[in-house]
Queue: 2 jobs
Job 1
Amino acid sequence: MYLLRRAWAELANEVFVLPSRTLVLIWVIALLALPLVYDDAYVLRILTMTCLFAIFAASWDLLAGYTGQVNFGHALFFGAGAYASGLMSQKLGVSPWLTIWAGAAVATLIGFLAGTLCLRLRGSYLSLATLAFPLIALGLLFAVPEFSGGELGISGLRRLATTPTQNYYVAALAMLAVVFGLWLLADSKFGIVLHAIRDDEVAARASGINTPRYKLVVFALSAAAAGFAGALFAHYIRIAGPSTLEVALSFQVVIWGIFGGVATIYGPVAAVFILYPLTEWLGSFEKVGELRLLIFAVIVLLVLLFMPRGLTPWVRDKVETQCPRCKQRNGTWRKMCRLCGAALKAEVARAQRLVGHQ
Amino acid sequence: MLQDILVTGLVNSGVYALLAVGFSLIFGVARIVNIAHTAFYMLAAYCFYALLVKGGLGFALAGAIAVAAVTALSVLCYRLVIEPVREHESAVLIATIALALIFQELMLLFFGGSYLGIPSTLEGVVRLAGVSIPYQRLLILVVAALMLTAVWFLLYRTRLGLAIRATANDLEVANLMGMNVHRVAMATVAISVALAAVAGVVVAPVFVVDPFMWLAPLVTMLAIVVLGGLGSMKGSLIGALIIGYVEAITVFAVPAGAYLKGAVALLIMVVVLLVRPEGLFGVAFEEER
């Protein structure tokens, strides 16, 4: 009884005070409880794919949003995981439960290599050079069709689990674990260093931060998560094909990341959970189906015109305010900060408003 | 085979130079990474097709109208979509990706996904030192050379060109000197898209026209621009020559070269970047924060 009361108090004090945390809790519960309530195979299939792409988008955000290494070729890591895991399970006959880790490991290695190549590049040069990597890989794969399956890819892979519900739980749990892991990492001291590298690399180096080492670690970590997602994806759709390395996928993850709001981790995840089911749902209509990519692009464009920083930062600013004294976040309905008691809506004098009070 | 490599390389380089110089110009002046650049090239090819085959206009008239219409559209897109989010670099980036997708889907909707062929503007071949060159390819070369000369004249011999170069050099100072940088950026967008549109019109009879024709040249163009140095005209031109010839050599001289041509071109770009991170003729922004 005491423990229950304690848990309730924790919930009420830490989670329900902030609308964003409440939303996350509802989302996690809904995600885990959905198959118990409604187990339509089609819906579960879409949500499984959504979960896998959410891992992918979150891994891009760690690299591009936090560290500022805007990667235009993130599909390289996704494809590396997919192909490595697929080849290993197909040619060597190893269980997919083992090969997904091998896929992630190969992606980590490739991420490390790509990071080494990119250490001297910055800004747009880095973006455009990374765009080339998956295409080089694609050209090499097409040149050895006996090994890679050419344009058809490696098909007939084994699934991790048999029923749609089991597959869904594998993807959902993997997604929750990876995304919360990345979020914790990005929220730690390590994440603060990454913010520093993005904002001013020279200053970060001057403060004694070994920026190349940090960048390499982030490249490897981000590639590991993306490769893990790729391996799971390949075993779910049972094909490791060239579509996992295409420019379209690299652009897709950039769109998800920026649409959701960069440097948040939860932003890209939210964007995937909104945009991916939306496009699939639109595609299920006979007439609108042909227009779905068009509608997708128009929505992205319109949302950006009104919220140029992305969707989640905009929503967050609407439902929460930052305490001017202790920088903690509070629900908009509060007049005083829940932690330090400072007044949240200070009366702004007219003169201050005129000079453009921040 | 040597003659084939020489001619194909030169023609491809001409097209790539038109695209790359335009992209480089817009990046230099407005710092926009315009992913939709080759989508305008695709639009121009479609517009040319519609006017020529469906509308029954003459070659010259159809080409001129196509270029003008696409240029006007680009200025409109810039005003409506890009300018409101100019301060947010990442928003500009995906706005241009979204624009490219929208154009692709619209063309898919209006014309379908099938390959459309356009009859040759000029029939016949000219024999030069043992190689037969179709007039059509010669036309591409001549148009590319003319357009590049015109751009050079505009940039280095007119007041607008001076303003464009000044804005590319330092936006704030150009603004303080009384140049209307917004209008300069708009003019640059128009010039750069006009170059892409001209490229689209002249290559349409040689290549096939389809809604996805913007992707392959996009990647090659980005490789050229990065190879030559972002924002550098000279770099884009020399990069176009290098990549054009490398592709031609790979296709004609290497087995399975058609698959590898993109990979080899991109590999060269990566190697150059490793040796010179700012590209061949780019300026290093070491102190720029």
Job 2
Amino acid sequence: MGARSELREMARGFRWGRRPMVPRSAEPYAEEAFDEGFPTDWARTEVGIAARQTILNGVMHPLVRSQVSMRVYGLDNLADVRGPVLFYSNHSSHLDATLIMSTLPDRFQRKTAVGAARDYFFDVWWRQAFTALVYGAFPIDRAKGGRGSIDKARELVRAGWSIVVFPEGTRSMDGHMQRFRHGSSRLALELNIGLVPIAIVGAFQAMPKGKWWPREGRPVVTVRYGRPLYPDQGETHQQLSLRMQHAVSLLFDEDRTTWWASLQHAERDETPSLLGSPGPAWRRAWEGSRPVPRRGRPRAWE
Amino acid sequence: MPRPGFVLEVDERTPPLIVHEGEGYRMQKFPLGTRVIYPPDALPGLRDLGAQIRHALLHPVGDSKPLPELLFAGMKLTIAVDDISLPLPPMVTPDIRQRILEHVIELAARAGVEDLEIVVATALHRRMTAEEIRRMVGERVYRSFWPKALYNLDAEDTANMTIVGQTDQGETVQMHTRSATSDLIVYVNINLVAMDGGWKSTAIGLAGYESLKHHHNVNTMLHSKSYMDPRPGHSAINDSTTRMGHVLRDKGVKIFQIESTLNSETFPSQLSFLNKREWEWSAKDQAVMMAAKKGNDLAPPRVRREFFRRIEAPYKVTGINAGEVEEVHRRTLENLHRQQLVEVRGQADIAIFGIPYVGPYNVNSILNPILVHCLGLGYLFNMYRNQPIVREGGVSILYHPVPWEFHTIHHPSYIDFFEEVLADTTDPKEIEARYEERYARDPWYVHLYRTSHAYHGVHPFYMWYWGAHGRDHSGDVIFVGGEPKSVARLGYRRADSLRDALEMAKDTVGSSPKITYFHAPPIMIADVR
Amino acid sequence: MTTLALEFFRSAPRYVGARTIGAKAPGLIAGPLAPIRLVNRKDPEPPKGRPGWARVRPLLSGICGSDIATISGRTSFYFSPLVSLPFVPGHEVIGELLDDCEDLNAGTRVVLSSVLACAARGEDPPCPNCAKGATNRCDRVTVGHLKPGLQTGYCSETSGGWARQMIAHRSQLWAVPEGMDDRSALLLEPFADAIHAALRANPQPGDSVLIVGAGTVGILTLLALKLLAQPGHVIVAAKHQRQRAAARMAGADEVVHPPHAAKAVRRHTSAVKLTPERGQDFLLGGVDIAIESVGSKGALDLALRTTKAGGKVVMSGIPGPGADLTPLWFRELELVGAYTTGLESLPDGTEKPTFQLAIELASALPVLADMVGATYPLDRWREALDHAMSAGKLGTFKVAFAPQD
């Protein structure tokens, strides 16, 4: 058989350029293993880390700063934190992961991986490669309850990596926070690691769902890190999720008012809920898209 | 979770499949509807093998005391070991036999045993070279015992072979004298296929021609359906061996049997695609396969041979059992079937086998045409239980280049067998009647067997009988890719491609036959209902 | 609340890419060139205050040739005002009602007749076609209190079958009979379309018929023809082995490879065959009726060139561009379009909705369930599309999504 016809038989038989198929009679025995689709561990090697930090600090961070007016507060909360932690925040924009990764202190930045939705970020090879490289990302299976994703997250934390997750599971449609899924609280309880709440204020206004570039006018975006939470003895994951939600609400309140005021509100159980009022959709979207006030001296042309 | 074996039905989504053909392989596109039998996934190996061996020796099964209690100072101890015909391919060192031997010898040393000899149970196989033995038993054992107390069995050394007795069917039981007169024989076995182990280890491994001729004959072979199915009544050779084993037992030969089973991780990681199902090959697997195939096709024969010779199987041990022969073997077979058994419904009109590059009798050697016949119509054909894969009168299609090539040192009697005997007749009964005795007693062959590294003069006959059942059962045998002259001498037909072979098969099975391809290696047994 | 859905969105570069390199590298169409994304979409809500709507949970939703054509950028711009972007594809649906819908209780299994006609759009009085029961010919598919969209599966407001939740109007729903499994029920919509196409051909007893294409549509059309009429000699032209085998089993008198179809028709009808300098051979003479179920230029050419003068050519799928209409004029042929389903006039004088006819006939066809060759969850949509695009070659008839998996 000539080399060319051999190659053609291979190409046709193995469906080069198309998706591989399992013969019908082999389907019952097909492996249902959690396949990452594309391994991401290469991005967490020394070379990968170095490349990522260069991209984040040299390209992404300056780029974001040029398009939005970015403020960062609360990094001193991380001063005493050691070992892997689970960073989490509200999720309303594609900016979120970049904002977090580029503002983390160096010792966390080099060893943090972002959990990204498998169906969205890991479906084609170049998106996978980009997400893995720039965010050190690992896939989270949104659809099927994500068993395998927990395994991967566990593996990373055990290896000393911190992870970033967005417990809402998807970006908010109207700027308000959605109910937290329990995967992250479950993981934190199992591995007994700290949870660092982050409030990202203004990202929805700057670049909501559907937009791929911030809007004009250098909108204000604030990234507020909070004090780490630690799982309590005997706490359930539902209780922990509520605490996690509350911690972010607290940070939003602090951002709107002052730290002292936010603590008082918390004492009196008056922290405004971020889940938004159950009103008509236009009201929610209206409230959620209210622009974040600029701090400091107003500019001449405002 | 290792998946069971299963029967694939080739459809439009099935890629071309691997078929082994000697020192090489091809990617064959099978006609739609062809059934392909796949072996189960490799079982995981035992963790902490050392502890498992120790446990087996201290907690034997069946009517047997723990090994330390059977050892005492002043005893005559013989350890018998399976020879180079197992496992296939040779496994990565340390060989399991080395590990077991080291444990046994340690216990013997502690018990104060002094008269200890290790015999390689070759029966009428060729003697192993010093290097081959060293690889098998390890440096420590080799240096301590070679050459005086570690040696190959010499079954033609009449001074050192005794007739122990006779079965009730008149079968002579002959055995290595020292073994028969030891206080204890410890047998270290690897059970690669269902035919191995049990009484075969001692009753055949340590026997000579006088014993062997009672079951290594055409009649017994034709009544072994199959010899890979050792259930009573299914394998005449196994029944005979059991009878002989009982004579040994009743005559007071004490045997402590240690059997090990392996998983099916046959090929090393560079060739890992050979262990996987084709549609599960990653892009990397496909690339490696094509590169390996191209490299192999272009390489000169000597390079190719050396490449295949060096393949070492990363086998893992799935079980160790020790104690009384029959009880040990029962458990061994359970482990073996767990790894190898595949359920198949119904027979086919055409069975297809790809013959691999190595069989029990050509390790570090050449697979000559007679061995091709033995490996194909003997071993592969008989890897079944209940019924052969192909129906009676159906066609067996085998893939192998069948080169007219013989190893002059290992297989001298084969050359004469091929040139003299097969040129005259290919009928096993005829051959047995007219030629066997002469070859078995020929002093030149005996000399080469005893002093060189040659298989016994009678061995090619056994190889011919080994395929007698397969040959008898098949209506036609066609070799794809075989050299015309050698195939013709064997008495078979040949074709250049599967399509031509199927065309030729039309004479026997018509134009829409049911086809089954036995996708081995890795080794498996088709349980055909 | 949001649920998982596959969304078709506007993407000019993908459209251009699919049209130019899509033909050479079809694998890319299921890959980066697909204008499809998996999203968590806001759940569709029935139009405020409008009765007759209910939420449906799709259990199985098929991938149809028209879906593939839309994704590969091969459909005409004619459709652009008839759809509202972004939409969730999927118009072959068997699902479960999540709400009560007039006389149907929540939990009932239903199949969708996907056209969004006057009744669904609240158009009162209805257009003349809807008034006659020919909802497939509705003139108001872009107005009313729903966004434009000729069918569910092309309308941004209703969602579609390739999602975990969609909405439907009572006028679109048919209850699945007890005892009919999901897979057979999935085939009801294409079967109804096939029945409509077969009856549009108005076959007279003894008519000779050529069916071009033996995919799902072709086979179902053949079955419909055999069940509802008494055709004479039926020839089926099919490209792939499994399709030919299915055509034989479905009762075709002769099954041929497409290049040999003209010869087969010639033999049977004793026609004269002519070979133009360019283009396919054609016949002077030929079959009474040709049904084209592939949707390609070559298939329509074949149908037009092998039909006798005054005969009828039925187009049952979205046509591909470029067919030569000369034989239509020269042989005074009738070119008939068959689009979804409506009201059928039966030989005994009664009228029955096509869907009802389909449900009645389907119970006698256990083979329908076997036509579903593979189902995929939504997150494996690239594999599903890749499979559907080569379905014929891979020996599959229908590929479907199982959105709840």
